[in-house]
Amino acid sequence: MFRLIPIIAIAGVLSSVPAFAQDRQLQPYIEGQISRVFIDDVDANTTTQVGGFNAAVDLTGEYEDATALGAEIGIAGIGGSGLRMGLGYTTFDAELEAIDVSAAISFGGVALATVADRVTADQLRNAGADIGEKVKAYSINAYYDVDMSTAIRPYIGLGVGLADIENMEDKEVMLSGYVGANYSFTENFYAGLRASIHHIEGPEDEAGILYDDIRTYALGLVVGFKF
Question: pTM of the entire structure?
């Protein structure tokens, strides 16, 4: 049920856009974004039982920094204030660098052996493993632009949406936070810098591996146009 909340919220915003557009104080906008994404190490685990034997495997994945591309459409000046809302889309490749593996084998609750090793992404590919790297994120965002009576407008924002990660069983709930500033070159054209943090609910992949919650950070350039 909780997974439906972002979808319902997005649908509500879309249905409200025609009414918003009738208010002369409101300004539709469109943005393009490019950013550098930094992914925290991701912990995961899985267990296997055969007869009385039990194998518990803990995994920690390390990822390279990635370049993300994004776009957003929205409405600014809601209620004649600095409030704006938008629908955002971001995509990037989460390139795995290596996995630290720790396995413990037991029988009837008695530990028999432990194994620890480091496996690189190339080793996994050479073994025929399908490493999912594509990430697509959809979010409804709300921002507050601070009027400084200058061409510079700092802002803060929050977002809720869904993350679609390759090879995962389901799309997962994603919560986001933003801080940035835009500079208006003309009445309609602006550009700025934005920092963000994204928290993704721990997914389960098609192999049955359970992942802890995933956290990413991003810093990038925004270019936008108000109509």
Answer: 0.81
